[in-house]
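Recap from last week: sequence in, structure out.
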Amino acid sequence: MVKTGCKGLIGSGGIGSGIFFELEGNPTLGRNESRLGVLSDARDFCKLHIICHYIAVLMRSDSADKSSFQTVAIGRVGRDETGRGMVRMMKETGMDTSLVKETENAATLFSVCFQYPDSSGGNITTARSASSLLTQEDIRQAEPLCKEFGLQGIALAAPEVPLECRLELLKMAAEYGMKRFCAFNSAELNEPVAVECIRHTNYIAMNRDEAETLTGENCAQDRLDDFLELVRERLLAINPDIRILVTLGSSGSYGFENGAWEFTPCARVEPKSTAGAGDATLAGIIIATACGLPFILPGRKRRKNLAETPLETACDFAALLASLSVLSMDTINLATTPAKLAVHSRGLRLKLSSEIESLLE
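Predicted structure tokens:
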């Protein structure tokens, strides 16, 4: 059992599956373009499932043992084999799926992912799925748990369910003093309800495209400081106390807290697929926060390599977990275990803080 001051996490977001196409050619798909691709054997999963899989596995959740860290999912699936299969997988990790409902009115969420030869990629996700039918009443079913977890609880508002439901979870969690994390897709970031979500969260995670949508500017390497300043200004105008994570793929990530940014390099690995890496990163931030690690260490000397200094922060641990996630073609690296992550860190010659070593024992 992981020794932590947190009782558990309550998360809402998309639950579903999908397929992968390996595209021919690296140029970005055009609006009117048709392109050949190979249908891959890789498995795709949706946002809440990806994030909570890593949390449940690495925090050793056991829904039957309430003394363990609880990973509780709120969502909807269709009354179909895809939905039942996803729920079975989630239960097998120790996740509590009692608040995941079946609906007859829509099929389980489904995504078509595409990957370029350079391992980057994206996805198209169904808009009218079971996940889109999640209601605020569904969210309120978790209020007794929010009250039970209180200051020792964490809430996650992930994409692929209605923004109104995510806002309901964040506001309800705030009433009981829970730490709150959120993420968005690019299309919804500037929606008024998304702005309200940002106002009611403690942490926000976004990738390059989402940050560019937020600011309306391109993230150019030679103007990166200016770009991050725009991100900071935009978000702090909404929520002055927010912590920010901006992931830039192989260029690493930037964490912001209390007026300062810190750069976290990527671990040096040969990725099989970067799909799902952002979700693994957010999972890493949540896990490390639950274990009491600081978000960033802004006074630390800027690193060129993750191995230059011991891993001590939530952003450090997130980079480690993401580097393992990309070694799988699936959007969840299903081989992930605490022991596997420990072996991976030794292979990268990383020094771990005592808190991270304890987590991975």
